[in-house]
Amino acid sequence: MPRLSDYLASQAETPLVDQHQQQQNQPTALEVERAVARFAAQHERRVIDHGPRQYQQPDGSLSAGCPPASPYTLASRAVWRDLVSHCRTSGGDAHYARSGWSLRHFGLRGGVDHASHVAYLSAAGLAPEEGRDGRTLGLDLRAMDLMADPRHPFNDAGGGNPWHAVACACALFVATPRQWHDAGDEWLEGAALGSAAARAPTS
Predict the structure, then answer these.
(1) Where does residue 88 rank: exposed (0-12), middle (13-18), buried (19+ CB within 10 A)?
(2) Burial status of residue 161 (CB atoms within 10 A of its CB: 0-12, 13-18, 19 or more)
(3) C-alpha–C-alpha distance, residues 9 and 7, integer Å
(4) What torsion, rounded to 10 degrees, do the Cα atoms 119, 87, 136, 134 define?
(5) At what angle do helices 29-50 and 114-122 cross, to 10 degrees?
(6) Which of 123, 128, 126, 125 is nearest to 37 (CA)?
(7) Under DSSP, is residue 74 helix (H, G, I), strand (E, B) or coil?
(8) Any idea what the Cα angle at residue 49 is, between residues 45 and 59, rounded to 5°?
(9) How far apart are CA 198 and CA 203, in angstroms?
(10) Considering only 3-12, 46-55, 62-71, 125-134, which range has the smallest mean pLDDT?
(11) Which of 4, 16, 121, 186 is buried deepest, with most CB atoms within 10 A?
């Protein structure tokens, strides 16, 4: 299981990727073709067993059309992208652990090219989250900081909005230095805000 301390250490060291190893980990065209066909067959069986994919719409109803992603969801993906990639390459993706590449994810060290990633997702009617440059598609930089985004309900202090007081209390809490426990073997010092250790408080 990936550990938070390992991720923080890897970020501090910022190791360079060995270009020869990265080329070795690239799948061949035949491997990509077979993986795409296999994923398409799995999706076809799923549709037969469970019906077409349904998405929850803003009004709570279900339909086949995928609604636009929340700008705050996209911002969260961008914030946690490095940590998620670390987990996927440290035991979180079984195929990556075996072969050094995975068509499910783009941007992993020694991973696959964007075109192959898109072809794989398209086999199941899915769309990529990142563009060819590795950036989150549709990202609105204003949504990166909820407390500074005037569009977010947290920041509406008028009309007796109860969420505004909650948001202020949460902002104060995560900005307070404290210790964070990591996988039972380390204590990490620092404020929660802007830190990868911000999501596991024990005190």
Answers:
(1) buried
(2) middle
(3) 5
(4) -70
(5) 30
(6) 123
(7) helix
(8) 110
(9) 12
(10) 3-12
(11) 4
